[in-house]
Fold Triosephosphate isomerase.
Amino acid sequence: MSLSPYVVGNWKMNGVRATLAEARAIDRAVARLTGVEVGLAPPFTLIAALREAVTAIGVGGQDCHVAAKGAHTGDVSAAMLADAGADFVIVGHSERRADHGESDALVRAKAEAALAAGLSVIVCVGETEAQRDSGEAEAVVSRQLDASLPSGEAAGEVGEVKLAERLAVAYEPVWAIGTGRVPSVADVEAMHAALRQRLVAAYGEGGSDVRVLYGGSVNPSNAAELLSTPGVGGALVGGASLSAESFMGIVAAAG
Ligand code: PEP
């Protein structure tokens, strides 16, 4: 059973209470659509308020700690995100990997902690420009995914909830994030096919339904082409998710 396309906005370290007006506009527009699943990941400070403000879209965190609680100043646990009303969390974003030295093993542990707390999880992977230029992109990203995915035991079905409803992957070339540059459709298709193979190797048949999102400079003009590329199950959107108008241009292309 294949799920609807999944379009997720990552607000990064942007957004104050006034920005929730954009989220409300997105929520109202999504409520009139069918056949697409939408989520927004605001900064931690807005999660509870966003939960109160929306009904048709999912609410997510941009990171979580591996522990449920404890002496970790400045961190937020997956259980706390769930308590604040989050449905999902993004882990392993390249900005976390670069700014905070997060390893694949840590990303895996965070994904497992998120699933244990009842959140669904989006695991991000992607190559640098140097890795793309040296022809290593598929090998590097495949290895990254193998080492970042939650174990089959952690990611298994819970009751009626299937693996693909608890886990998504986002392929985000580091060099495409926030730059206005995107890979060719052929490169996106090839990478998504490689990642699908890794998901099936990791989880068997269940891995074939897990959505693999594309992320990196998606905007209303390029969304239709990217989202209709074989193997692309949705989009992870940074800058263009801060305005309802541009984000809905992307969501409309997915539906
Ligand atoms: C991101 O950082 O997840 C992202 C895709 O950013 P942008 O859309 O701004 O390139």
